[in-house]
Structure to design on (1250 residues):
C-alpha cells in the first residue's frame, strides 16, 4: 500500500477497527474462561504487536501492568525463538517473572499471526492464575518457593498441543483443569483474532500492517512528545516511607524532564529484601509508563509510540528492580507505589493534573481449604479495592481500582465456590481523606468460615502503617485494617481460620486534594447525609457546618 | 377466553410510542392491506395519543374493535424515564451489611487512562437504601431467618422520605426467593401504596450488583409505567377490544400486559427492537441479509447491525451511559436485548452555536411539546426538522399527509435568529449546516459502532426507517461509504410494522443446573412440557390457532467450570428420549461455531429454554399485494419544488413523487423527493432508485 493511499480518514477507520478486534477477541477469551479471576476480576490483557514487537492496540479491559510488560515479553521470546522459526498455529508460553509480569502467577502467551503465509503480527495475552503450584507465602525467601516457572517454549506447535508442557503443568498445579481451561480459552481467542485480523487485511487490500502500525505509533509518539515539550525542564523528586515487612522501606523517585524526554529514576529506593514484595524492572517500568500516560496524554490512544522518549530506571538489586532469585510473589506491594511517587514528584509542575494517593497497592486475600460438599481442595482469591485518590476535577470515587484495574467478584459467585460466608461489604464512614476534593471511601468486608476443616488464609497488605497521602494540602485517607474475630492480625501473614472464625478487612481510603477549607459547604452536608462523614469528624475538619 | 379471531382473516394493530410521535398501523390480513397513522405523543398521558390513533384508524377503515385479533405495542417511555431520570423516588432493601453494593459496583475503570473518570450515580441514593437482618446461602438454604418486624421501621422511613417504589434485592434470592416474597407480603400489609420490585422476579440471575441495578431500575419506572398500561388496557376494553394487549420486549419477543407492567425494565429497548426487526423483514423481501438499520425519529437516532438477517444482540446491556456512550459508564441491566445503539439526535434536536463558534446539534430535543419551531406550538429554537423544512426536504402542506401543517416562516425565523445572523450567513446555508452536522455525526457514530464490532460498515445495506431516517439516509450512506440502500414503504412507521410482522413469540426459561451425564431426563421432560403448555396458552390468548403454533427447545450449556454459556438447540425428542449423546453433539457443534475449538471436558446445562411462537405473519405478501396495481410504470411527478442540494449549493427544481404510486420496476433518478404520509425519502442528484416487487426502493449511488 502506498503512503498516499493512507489518508487520515482511512487510517482512523482501520485503527478503530483494530481496537474493536482486540476488544471482541478479549471477550471471546472471557466467555470461554474457566477461572473467576479472568471472568469476573478481569485480571488479564489482550493486545496486538507488530513484527518489530511494537504494541499497537490493546483491549479496553486490560490490566495496565500487563499491557506494559507484553512488549518486553515478546522481545525476550523472539530472542529465544527467532521469528523465522515460528509457524502458523504456534503458541508460545512463559510465566518467568523477569520476562513476564513480575510474578509466576501471570501466564503470558504469544501467538504469531500469519496472513497469506506471511507473519503480519503477534497476538499477546496475559492472564492471572490463582495457583501456580509451590508454596507461595509471605515468608518466602526466594522465587523457587513461589511455584512452577514455565520457561519460554511452544505450548502449541503448528496447531498441535505439546503434551510434555501440558504434563508439566498438570503435575505441578493444584487446580490444573482451571488453569489449562484458561490457557485453552486463550487458544480460542487467538483463533478468533487470526480470523478477524485476516478479514481486515483482506477487505482493506493490505498485504501487511507495517504502514498502518508505523502511522499509529508515529501519531501517538508525536502527541506524547508535544505534551512533554510543553512542560518546564527540571528535576522533580518525591520520597516516602511504606509499610514494608519488619521495617518500613523507602520509595524514592526523581523525574527529569528535558525537552521531549522524561527520565524516571528510582535511585534511593530501598534494596530488595528476602520477602516476596520485590518488583522486577519490567513491572516497575510498566506502572511508571502507565502513570505518565494518565497524567500527560490520557486522550491519545495508548501504544508503544507513547513511550518512545520515556526511560525508567531503578538500581539493580533494589526493591523496584529486584535481581534473581528474589521472591516476587507480591510484587505489586512495591510496584503499585510507582504512580503515586511520580504524581508526587510532578505535583510541583502539574498541580492542576495530579491526583492524591489511592487505597492501593491492591488488596486481596487467598483462601485454601477443602470443600464441604465433596472433600476436594479449593484455592480462591478475593479482590477488594480501596478509595480512589481525590482528583483536581472532583472527589475520588469510592472503592475504585487504581493503578491496577481489577474488578471485584460477585459475592454470590464466591460463596458458590468456597465454604465461606461474606457477612458484610460496605463503605466505611470517615475513611476518606478530607480536602477541597475528598478521597474515595474505603470498604469493609468480612468472611466467616463455614468449613469444618481449617481454612488457610493468606494476606499481604500495605497501607496499615502509612496511609494514602493527601496531596497539596489534602488530608490522608484512613489506613487499612486486618482483623480476625475483631483482633488485629499482621498485614502480611498466613492464618488458619477455624469454623466460625470471622476475618475482616478494611481497605485504605483515598487521600484528599487541596486544603479542606476550600470544600463547598453543600458537599460537606451531602457527605453527612450519606452517613460517610460523621458529625464529629465534620466538626473537627470543617468546623461548624450547620445544617 | 370465549372466542378468538383466527389468522389470517382478522386485523392486527401495532402501536409505537416514541419521544415525539405515536405511530399506529392497522393490518387487514384478509385483504392483505396496511393502513397507517402518526400522531404527536401526549407526554402527560401517553395512552391518550394511543387511543386517539387507534380510534382514528379503525373509524377510517370501518372496522369494529371487537374484530381486532391483537394489539401489539412498543415504546421508548421506559428508556426515556431512565435517561432523563424521570422515575419516582426509589428505595432499596438489601441483606444486612450490603446496602452499598449498588454504589460500589464492580470497582473497575471503564477508561483505563482517564484520572477524572465519573461513575454512574445510583438511582437509589445511600440514605434511601435500607438493610434487613436475614441470610440465604448459595444453595438456597436459609442461614438466618428474616427479622420481618424490622420492616415496620423501614416502612416508616420510606414514607417519611417520600419513597414511592422500592426494590428488594437479597443475597442468593435467585436461588431461593422466600425472604424477598416475605418482604413483599409484609410491605403489602403496612405500606400498601408502595410499589415493590423483587430481584428474584425481575432478574433471577446470579450476581448481586447487576441484579440490584436491574431491580432498582425496574422499581424506578414501575409506578408510572403501570399507570400508563392500566389506563391503556381500560381504554381498549371500553372501546370494545377483547384480546390481550401484547407488548414488545427489548429482544423483540412479546409479553402480555400483566407481565409487562410487573417488569417494565424488560421493555427498555421495546420500540427500537421492533424497528430492527422491521429492517430485517424488509431486507429479507429484497434478499439482503447484511443490513444497517438506521432509525431516526423525533427525539433520537439509533443504529443496529443485522448480519445474516439476524439483528445483533447484547448481553451487556446498559442504559444512561454517563461518558461518551462508553461501555461500563452506564447502569447495567440483566436483560436480553437487541443491540441498538444511540448514534445521535432526532428531528427535534436543537441546533445552536457552541463555544468554538461552530454549529452543534443536540443532545437536547424539543420533543413533541413544544416541538420544532415549525410545529407552531411555541417552540422558538431551531431544530433538524426546521432545517429539513427550509431546505425543501419536507413539504409544509403535506407533513403527516397534510394533517399537520408546518410553519415555514417560523422555521426560517428560528434559524435566522439563532444561527444565520450570528454566523453572518443566509438562512438556507445555516439550515444546510444543521442538516450536514447532524448527518455527519450520525455517520461517524454508526461507523464506529460497526468497527467496534470488528466489522466494516460499508459492506452493509442501509435501511432507513423512522420519520426522519429517509430524509437523511442517502447523505449518511455517502459519508459511510455505503453505496446501496433498501428504502421500504412505510418507513415512517416501521417500528409499528415490525411489531406486526414479527411472530407472536414467548420465551420461557427455567434454571436447572446439571452435568450432562447426570441429567434427570424424565423430570426435565416433564418440566419442558409444562413450559410448552404455558407458552401455548399465551400464544393462543393472542389470537393464534393451535395448529399454527410452533415450539423450539434449547439448553444453555458450557463446560463444567466455565461462567458463560452457549445457546444449544435441542430437539424435544432428544429430551424425551434421554439422548445424552445427541445433546453432547449439539453442544460441541455450537461451541465450535463460537470458539473455533472444543474441549475434552464434561459439559453441563444451566438453563432450559422454550420458545413458543405463532406463524411468521405474511407481511411480505401484504406488501407485495399493495404493489400489484401500479406495476411497471414510473409515475409522473406529483409536483415540482425547489430543494437544496450540496453539490449545486442552491435550490434546484426537483420532481416530487407520491411514494405509494411507485410500483415494482419503476425507476427514478435523483434529484427527487418521494413522499408518503409519515416520511419523505430524499434522493440527491448522485443517487437513483428502482422499486422491487416488495415495493422496497433499492437506492444506489450512481457510478
Amino acid at each position: 500500500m502506498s503512503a498516499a493511499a493512507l489518508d487520515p480518514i482511512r487510517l482512523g477507520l482501520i485503527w478503530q477497527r483494530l481496537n474493536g478486534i482486540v476488544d471482541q477477541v478479549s471477550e471471546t477469551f472471557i466467555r470461554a474462561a474457566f477461572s473467576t479471576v479472568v471472568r469476573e476480576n478481569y485480571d488479564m490483557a489482550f493486545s496486538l504487536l507488530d513484527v518489530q514487537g511494537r504494541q499497537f492496540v490493546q483491549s479496553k479491559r486490560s490490566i495496565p501492568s500487563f499491557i506494559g510488560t507484553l512488549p518486553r515479553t515478546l522481545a525476550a521470546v523472539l530472542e529465544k525463538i527467532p521469528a523465522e522459526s515460528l509457524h502458523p498455529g504456534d503458541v508460545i508460553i512463559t510465566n518467568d517473572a523477569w520476562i513476564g509480569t513480575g510474578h509466576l502467577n501471570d501466564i503470558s502467551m504469544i501467538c504469531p499471526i500469519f496472513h497469506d503465509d506471511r507473519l503480519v503480527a503477534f497476538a499477546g495475552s496475559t492472564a492471572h492464575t490463582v495457583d501456580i503450584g509451590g508454596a507461595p507465602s509471605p515468608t518466602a525467601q526466594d522465587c523457587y518457593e513461589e511455584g512452577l516457572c514455565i520457561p519460554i517454549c511452544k505450548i502449541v506447535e503448528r496447531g498441535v498441543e505439546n503434551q510434555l508442557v501440558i504434563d508439566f503443568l498438570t503435575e505441578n498445579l493444584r487446580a490444573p483443569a482451571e488453569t489449562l481451561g484458561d490457557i485453552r480459552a486463550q487458544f480460542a481467542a487467538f483463533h478468533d483474532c487470526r480470523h478477524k485480523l485476516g478479514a481486515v487485511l483482506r477487505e482493506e487490500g493490505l498485504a501487511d500492517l507495517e504502514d498502518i502500525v508505523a502511522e499509529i505509533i508515529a501519531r501517538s509518539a508525536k502527541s506524547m512528545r508535544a505534551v512533554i515539550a510543553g512542560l518546564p525542564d527540571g528535576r522533580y523528586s518525591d520520597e516516602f516511607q511504606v509499610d514494608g515487612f519488619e521495617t518500613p522501606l523507602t520509595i524514592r523517585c526523581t523525574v527529569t524532564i528535558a525537552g521531549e524526554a522524561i527520565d524516571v529514576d528510582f535511585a534511593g529506593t530501598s534494596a530488595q529484601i528476602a520477602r516476596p514484595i520485590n518488583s522486577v524492572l519490567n513491572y516497575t517500568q510498566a506502572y511508571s509508563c502507565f502513570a505518565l500516560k494518565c497524567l500527560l496524554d490520557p486522550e491519545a490512544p495508548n501504544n508503544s509510540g507513547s513511550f518512545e522518549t520515556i526511560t525508567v530506571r531503578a538500581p539493580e538489586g533494589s526493591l523496584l528492580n529486584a535481581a534473581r532469585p528474589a521472591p516476587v510473589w507480591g510484587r505489586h506491594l512495591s510496584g503499585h507505589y510507582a504512580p503515586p511517587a511520580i504524581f508526587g514528584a510532578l505535583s510541583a509542575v502539574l498541580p492542576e493534573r495530579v491526583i492524591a494517593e489511592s487505597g492501593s497497592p491492591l488488596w486481596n486475600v487467598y483462601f485454601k481449604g477443602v470443600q464441604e460438599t465433596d472433600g476436594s481442595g479449593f484455592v480462591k482469591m478475593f479482590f477488594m479495592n480501596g478509595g480512589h485518590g481525590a482528583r483536581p476535577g472532583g472527589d475520588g470515587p469510592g472503592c475504585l481500582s487504581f493503578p491496577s484495574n481489577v474488578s471485584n467478584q460477585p459475592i454470590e459467585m464466591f460463596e458458590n465456590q468456597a465454604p465461606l460466608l461474606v457477612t458484610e461489604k460496605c463503605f466505611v464512614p470517615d475513611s476518606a481523606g478530607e480536602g477541597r476534593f475528598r478521597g474515595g471511601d474505603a470498604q469493609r468486608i468480612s468472611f466467616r468460615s463455614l468449613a469444618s476443616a481449617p481454612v488457610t488464609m493468606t494476606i499481604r497488605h500495605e497501607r496499615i502503617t502509612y496511609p494514602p497521602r493527601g496531596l497539596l494540602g489534602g488530608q490522608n485517607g484512613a489506613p487499612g485494617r486486618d482483623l480476625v474475630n475483631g483482633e488485629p492480625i499482621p498485614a502480611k501473614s498466613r492464618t488458619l481460620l477455624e469454623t466460625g472464625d470471622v476475618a475482616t478487612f478494611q481497605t485504605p481510603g483515598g487521600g484528599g486534594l487541596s486544603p479542606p477549607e476550600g470544600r463547598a459547604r453543600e458537599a460537606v452536608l451531602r457527605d453527612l447525609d450519606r452517613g460517610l462523614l460523621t458529625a464529629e469528624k465534620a466538626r473537627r475538619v470543617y468546623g461548624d457546618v450547620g445544617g | 377466553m370465549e372466542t378468538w379471531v383466527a389468522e389470517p382473516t382478522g386485523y392486527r394493530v401495532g402501536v409505537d410510542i416514541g419521544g415525539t410521535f405515536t405511530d399506529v398501523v392497522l393490518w387487514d390480513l384478509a385483504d392483505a392491506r396496511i393502513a397507517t397513522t402518526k400522531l404527536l405523543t401526549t407526554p402527560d398521558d401517553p395512552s391518550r395519543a394511543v387511543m386517539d390513533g387507534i380510534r382514528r384508524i379503525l373509524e377510517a377503515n370501518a372496522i369494529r374493535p371487537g374484530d381486532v385479533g391483537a394489539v401489539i405495542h412498543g415504546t421508548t417511555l421506559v428508556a426515556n424515564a431512565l435517561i432523563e431520570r424521570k422515575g419516582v423516588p426509589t428505595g432499596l432493601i438489601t441483606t444486612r451489611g450490603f446496602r452499598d453494593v449498588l454504589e460500589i459496583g464492580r470497582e473497575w475503570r471503564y477508561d483505563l487512562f482517564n484520572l477524572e473518570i465519573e461513575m454512574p450515580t445510583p438511582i437509589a441514593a445511600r440514605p434511601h437504601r435500607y438493610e434487613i437482618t436475614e441470610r440465604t446461602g448459595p444453595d438456597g438454604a436459609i442461614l438466618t431467618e428474616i427479622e420481618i418486624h424490622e420492616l415496620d421501621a423501614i416502612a416508616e422511613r420510606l414514607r417519611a422520605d417520600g419513597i414511592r417504589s422500592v426494590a428488594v434485592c437479597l443475597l442468593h434470592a435467585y436461588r431461593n426467593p422466600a425472604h424477598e416474597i416475605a418482604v413483599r407480603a409484609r410491605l403489602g400489609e403496612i405500606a400498601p401504596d408502595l410499589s415493590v420490585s423483587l430481584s428474584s422476579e425481575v432478574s433471577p440471575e446470579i450476581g448481586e450488583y447487576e441484579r440490584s441495578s436491574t431491580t432498582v431500575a425496574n422499581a424506578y419506572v414501575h409506578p408510572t409505567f403501570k399507570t400508563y398500561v392500566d389506563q391503556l388496557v381500560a381504554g381498549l376494553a371500553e372501546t370494545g377490544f377483547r384480546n390481550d394487549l401484547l407488548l414488545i420486549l427489548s429482544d423483540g419477543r412479546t409479553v402480555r400486559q400483566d407481565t409487562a407492567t410487573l417488569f417494565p425494565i424488560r421493555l427498555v429497548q421495546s420500540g427500537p427492537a421492533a424497528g430492527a426487526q422491521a429492517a430485517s423483514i424488509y431486507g429479507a423481501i429484497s434478499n439482503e441479509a447484511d443490513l444497517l438499520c438506521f432509525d431516526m425519529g423525533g427525539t433520537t437516532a439509533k443504529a443496529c447491525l443485522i448480519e445474516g438477517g439476524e439483528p445483533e444482540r447484547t448481553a451487556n446491556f446498559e442504559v444512561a451511559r454517563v461518558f461518551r456512550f462508553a461501555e461500563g459508564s452506564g447502569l447495567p441491566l440483566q436483560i436480553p436485548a437487541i443491540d441498538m445503539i444511540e448514534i445521535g439526535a432526532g428531528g427535534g434536536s436543537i441546533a445552536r452555536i457552541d463555544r468554538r463558534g461552530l454549529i452543534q446539534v443536540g443532545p437536547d430535543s424539543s420533543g413533541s411539546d413544544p416541538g420544532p419551531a415549525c410545529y407552531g406550538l411555541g417552540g422558538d429554537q431551531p431544530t433538524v426538522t426546521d432545517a429539513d423544512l427550509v431546505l425543501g426536504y419536507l413539504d409544509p402542506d403535506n407533513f403527516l399527509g397534510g394533517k399537520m401543517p408546518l410553519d415555514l416562516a417560523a422555521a426560517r425565523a428560528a434559524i435566522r435568529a439563532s444561527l444565520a445572523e450570528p454566523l453572518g450567513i443566509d438562512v438556507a446555508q445555516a439550515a444546510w449546516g444543521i442538516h450536514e452536522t447532524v448527518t455527519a455525526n450520525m455517520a461517524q457514530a454508526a461507523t464506529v459502532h460497526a468497527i467496534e464490532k470488528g466489522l466494516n460498515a460499508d459492506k452493509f445495506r442501509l435501511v432507513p426507517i423512522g420519520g426522519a431516517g429517509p430524509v437523511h439516509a442517502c447523505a449518511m450512506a455517502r459519508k459511510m461509504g455505503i453505496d446501496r440502500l433498501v428504502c421500504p414503504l412505510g418507513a415512517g412507521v416501521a417500528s409499528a410494522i415490525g411489531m406486526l410482522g414479527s411472530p407472536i413469540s414467548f420465551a420461557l426459561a427455567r434454571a436447572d443446573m446439571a452435568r450432562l451425564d447426570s441429567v434427570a431426563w424424565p423430570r426435565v421432560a416433564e418440566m419442558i412440557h409444562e413450559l410448552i403448555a404455558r407458552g401455548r396458552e399465551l400464544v393462543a390468548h393472542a389470537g393464534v390457532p393451535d395448529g399454527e403454533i410452533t415450539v423450539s427447545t434449547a439448553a444453555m450449556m458450557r463446560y463444567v467450570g466455565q461462567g458463560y454459556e452457549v445457546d444449544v438447540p435441542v430437539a424435544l425428542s432428544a429430551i424425551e428420549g434421554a439422548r445424552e449423546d445427541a445433546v453432547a453433539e449439539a453442544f460441541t457443534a455450537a461451541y465450535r461455531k463460537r470458539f473455533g475449538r472444543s474441549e475434552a471436558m464434561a459439559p453441563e446445562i444451566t438453563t432450559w429454554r422454550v420458545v413458543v411462537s405463532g406463524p411468521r405473519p405474511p407481511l411480505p405478501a401484504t406488501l407485495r399485494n399493495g404493489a400489484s396495481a401500479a406495476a411497471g410504470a414510473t409515475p409522473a411527478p406529483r409536483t415540482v419544488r425547489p430543494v437544496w442540494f450540496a453539490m449545486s449549493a442552491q435550490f434546484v427544481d426537483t420532481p416530487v413523487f407520491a411514494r405509494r404510486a411507485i410500483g415494482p420496476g419503476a425507476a427514478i433518478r435523483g434529484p427527487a423527493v418521494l413522499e408518503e404520509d409519515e416520511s419523505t425519502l430524499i434522493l440527491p442528484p448522485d443517487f437513483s432508485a428502482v422499486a422491487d416487487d416488495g415495493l422496497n426502493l433499492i437506492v444506489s449511488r450512481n457510478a
